[in-house]
Amino acid sequence: MTDRINKLRRESLDAIPTVSSERGTLLTEFYTSGQADGFSTPVQRAKAFYYIMDNKELSFCDGELIVGERGPKAKATPTYPEVCIHSKEDFDMLDSRPKCPFKVDDLNRELHEQKVFPYWHGKSHREKVMMHMTPEWQDCYKAGVFTEFQEQRAPGHTVLGGKIYKTGLIGLKAEIKEAMDTLDFYNDKDAFDKNEELKGMDIAADAIINFAERNAQALKEMADKETDTKRKLELQEMSAICSRVPKYAPESFWEALQTYWFIHVGVITETNPWDAFNPGRLDQHLYPFYMADIKSGHITEESAKELLSSFWIKFNNHPAPPKVGVTAKESNTYTDFALINLGGVKADGTDAVNELSYVLLDVIEEVRLLQPSSMVQISKKNPDRFLKRALHILKTGFGQPSIFNTDTIIQQLLRQGKDIIDARNGGASGCVETGAFGTEAYILSGYFNLAKVLELTLNSGYDKRTDKQVGLNIPSDFKSYEELLAAYEKQLNYFIDIKVKGNVVIEKLYADYIPVPFLSLLVEDCIKNGKDYNAGGARYNTTYIQGVGLGSLTDSLSSLKYNVFDKQLISLNDLKKAIDADFEGYDELRVMLLEDTPKYGNDDDYADDLMSDIFEMFYSAVNERPTYKGGMHRINLLPTTSHVYFGSVIGALPDGRKAKVPLSEGISPVQGADRKGPTAVIKSAAKIDHLRTGGTLLNQRFSKEFMYTDEGIDNVCKLVRSYFRMDGHHIQFNVMDEKILREAQKQPENYSDLIVRVAGYSDYFVDITDELQEEIIRRTEHQQS
Amino acid sequence: MKDINLKGIVFDIKHYAIHDGDGIRTTVFFKGCPLSCIWCHNPESRKPSIQTIKKELKLDGKSFCTDETVGKEMTVSEVMDEIKKDLIFYEESGGGATFSGGEVFLQDKFLISLLEECQKSDINTCIDTTGFVSEGTLRSVIPLADSFLFDVKLIDDEAHVKYCGVSNKKILDNFRFIYANGKNIRLRLPVIPGITDTAQNLKLTAQFAKQFDGVEIDLLPYHKIGKDKYRKLGMDYKMDGVESPSNDRMEELVRFFEGYEITTTIGG
Predict the structure, then answer these.
(1) Which of A387, A389, A591, B262 has a CA-to-CA distance to B167 between 20 and 30 Å?
(2) Domains of chain B: which residue ranges?
(3) CB-count burial class (<10 Å; 0-12, 13-18, 19+) for A687
(4) CA-CA distance, A562 to B258, in Å (whole number)?
């Protein structure tokens, strides 16, 4: 790492996240100044975006090579009042909470409270959502049956494809013009709407071209004043780069990186959608530029690494926007889930690993930053060397890169009806979500608490915590396991219906009120269709519901089937009593439930078959239900951190889990329930039909010694290959020992850089909640004996 | 058909065993051992019959006592079902099944049936043995097994009798016999401070190994994880006060054997 990068990295790590009123103030100024009057919604939104990018303060870090900040300084994080409004209490909590705080100074608080929020009250999207959701939806939401992604963050979760590097924005503007010229006002009733949307996209493109030019000017002025000759030359070159890109297609490696970064800043300023934005297949997009520049001598491997490191640090300067209400309390992370993909296959299906893939892995290892997150795509066509290189980074306990199965991703996308080229150009983003990069809007709509549905099933739909009849009133004195399972299925379908109905309404609200012309410009075929990303303009549109607690639910069903119905060791009534008592006074029963009952994760068909039944039910309830945008609902199985929240709203469970304890995460077994080692976990997890999901998350904790030797790495490599041969989607290894984590709990100040894999993403151990820390420690550590 | 219903007593089946031969393996531990090495870390493997011991469980800071059965009667077909669960891992990694103990040869018919079944299914097999077995039995097993992990603990017979309870004469002869039959065999030396790592034993071991071209040595460092098991089994633990050899010491031993041009690794 060069001194410059070391310094920039340190500054980025030390920068204190703050709430900035800049965006909110500019947005409000625009709407109250009359400039918006009379225009259609997409044109208003595009003009507002232009206004923000034209008036926002420019900010530069000393010595950086890639420029462009969302806020007035590093980690100054804007608000999005058109989406949601922070209350006084939210600001107090953000400012003072011990984990992941955002400092809110008096000036920024005042501007928000006096200028910004009064205008947006009653207009914000979140208020509209809460107004339009049915009482049933509200009850489920409050009971913790599901969460809703789109109530305070915009639909996003998409990834840039390779097009912009070939066309520049000027090429996209030409496409817009062509699309406008071919509109048929005589026969197409939507022609006017399309025209307005396209106008908006054109203005949005200009907004970023202008923003880049503003940066170019500022850099030129800085260069003029600079006394250090080397830096002066750099600033001059940077100024020239910003004058060219992203307006024109990049011609060098440096220009390509700067192109993406301006696009990124644009997307996260427009709405900062959920899971930010993501360059996706970075080693593929950059490779032609890298090779050309290396051949011409314009860059060396070392200078390329410095540019990439500077690029990495830009991501780290941009925390995810602070949330509001209970979500802000539960969702403690600065991570904004940009997940850089390396490896996989090319559009023609051949091995895509190249020299730059390895250079990028070096950078990931060296800069060791939370953001952006990184992953390797492993196809059967990729060499073991590539996977082993990734494992060597993982073994340092950093939690990155995570490991994905390209061949499974492609099959998932093909099954969803995508073109094979689009499928091969795809990958995973966010945590583990499968998508066709550059061509798909794949929205996560909310986590769904599979275990809560069992609790409600056992209580005839009544939720004790919120004291409400939330589910169907089905008698719960089950005489057989089959009867119980049938009731579960009815309840599940009832809740999924409520969720899907809510999704349709929320998608319409976004389509009507919060179009995103800039993001639309970037995702094919929004231009061709003259339709917004939020209205179904993309080539493919998918809405996901993410199932959570599969392991906890399976073990609970296994316990009911085994102990109550098959072996008749305890009556259903007595087990319910013990659950109601949170097992107080039922220690011996609890030992039996924990120790002597078949559990998921041990390659034991007794439990694993029940998991498959649940999978089928969840899949059938959700899969291919139409969305507002003309796409389809699908499932994936990932929790982020919701398994902690979902656990907190559930009492004790029949598997011996006590009340409020986190649920199992992703498709991982219940923490500590897997007793037969990693091959058994993998076999159990492979019984899920990964190809019918849009992503699954499997976390496996390993102690360091497992990967200590080259032979150890070989075996882990083969373990991954075996899982992927069985169509496993993703596997992540947390490499650490308990001693370190316990020490970190005692003296967090000494472990501020300890990064652990949480669930589909990594976070600083000391930043996560105590419960989550405990849970990570509890995850079975597969230690050699 | 008869053979697959043959029963044996197994005390553990370990998956993802990565130190018991090549690749990712599943190791089946047979119960019963004719030796009584004082450092044994698997004392529960010694008695050939099924035992019940007290097991302490901790739950929310509270302790619970439950009975734990050590050893399980299993048919050949039941063991094969467990082994076959991990076929995909063997294929990917060049692994297979390892039979260990206790001493596998105490249940020779059971062992032979398992080896035959593995051979039918193309599963690579490895035998981890003390070598204390009659030549006749060994002769019938050799064509069925792919490789051997063979313990040579002490070369001096008197010491061997003292610490392991039996003479090593047959053991050393059997090592020669397996080697002479062209089988892949690795010599395993448990490094027990003050007992097997004496200058004399190291030298004799090196000289013994040197007679067999290409034979490699695995050094298995002593560790104390067995101690608690002795207590639960009501057995005396005679190793109190003995510490595990340091990494430096292990490295030193590797260099010692490498001095004899014997390829040597720490662990399996």
Answers:
(1) B262
(2) 3-266
(3) middle
(4) 56
Could you say which DSSP state residue A663 is in? P
Question: Do residue A676 and residue B24 have CB atoms under 8 angstroms apart?
Answer: no
Q: Determine phi and psi for B221, rounding to 5 degrees.
A: -65, 140
| A433 part of the active site | yes
Classify strands A433-435 and A427-429 as parallel, antiparallel or unpaired. antiparallel
Q: Which of B15, B44, B56 to mutate to test the interface with A (most CBs of A within 10 A)?
A: B15
Residue A592 contacts B where some CB pair is shorter than 8 Å: no
Report whether pLDDT(A737) > 80. no
- CA neighbor of A553 nearest in space, from A637, A630, A434, A676: A637
The whole-angstrom separation of Cα A237 and Cα A217 is: 12
Whether residue B117 lies within 8 A of chain A, CB to CB, comes out as: no
Per-residue pLDDT reduced to its tens digit, A255-291: 999 999 999 999 999 998 988 899 999 999 999 999 9
Segment among A110-119, A527-536, B259-268 with least mean pLDDT: B259-268
Catalytic residue chosen out of the listed positions A365, A433, A440, A507: A433
Q: What's the CA gap between A318 and A275, in Å, rounded? A: 12
Number of A/B CB contacts below 8 angstroms equals 63
Is the separation of the CB atoms in A624 and A633 below 8 Å? yes
CA distances from A497 to A94, A126, A148, A633 (A): 34, 21, 14, 12
Contact A399, A732 (CB under 8 A): yes
Long-range contacts of A585-594 (CB under 8 A, 24+ apart): A587/B59, A587/B62, A587/B64, A588/B64, A590/A656, A590/B59, A591/B57, A591/B59, A591/B64, A591/B66, A592/A563, A593/A559, A593/A563, A593/A654, A593/A655, A593/A656, A594/A655, A594/A656, A594/B59
10 Å CB burial of residue A493 (0-12, 13-18, 19+) is middle
Q: Alpha-carbon distance A580 to A566, whole Å?
A: 22
CA dihedral A517, A518, A520, A522 (to 10 degrees): 160
Q: Which CATH class is domain B3-266?
A: alpha beta
3-state secondary structure of A419: coil
B28 CA to chain A: closest CA distance, Å? Answer: 13
What architecture is domain A444-782? Alpha-Beta Barrel (3.20)
Secondary structure of A728-770 in HEC code, one letter for each residue: CCEEEEEECCHHHHHHHHHCHHHHCCCEEECCCCEEEHHHCCH
Extended beta strands in A549-698, E state = 632-636
Residue A171, helix vs strand vs coil: helix
Of A591, A725, A785, the CB nearest to B64: A591
Q: Which of A100, A140, A242, A431 is catalytic?
A: A431
Residue A288: the pLDDT is 98
Three-state DSSP at A402 gives: strand
User: CB distance from B64 to chain A under 8 Å?
Assistant: yes
- In contact, A126 and A82? CB cutoff 8 Å: no
Element spanning A513, H or E: helix A481-513
Helix (H) or strand (E) holding A580: helix A572-580
Smallest Cβ–Cβ distance between A718 and the set B14, B24, B57 belongs to B24
Per-residue pLDDT tens over the stretch A597-650: 999 999 999 999 999 999 999 999 999 999 999 999 999 999 888 999 999 999
Taking Cα atoms as reference points, which of B196, B221, B217 lies closest to residue B260?
B217
Output the CA angle A724-A728-A731, nearest 5 degrees: 90
Provide the CB-side half-sphere exposure for A609 (13 A, CA): 6
CA pair distance B172, A577, nearest whole angstrom: 64
Question: What span, in angstroms and rounded, lies between the C-alpha atoms of A386 and A545?
Answer: 33
**B65 vs A: CB within 8 A:** no
- A100 assigned to active site: no
Query: What's the pLDDT tens digit per position in A683-701?
Result: 999 999 999 999 999 998 7
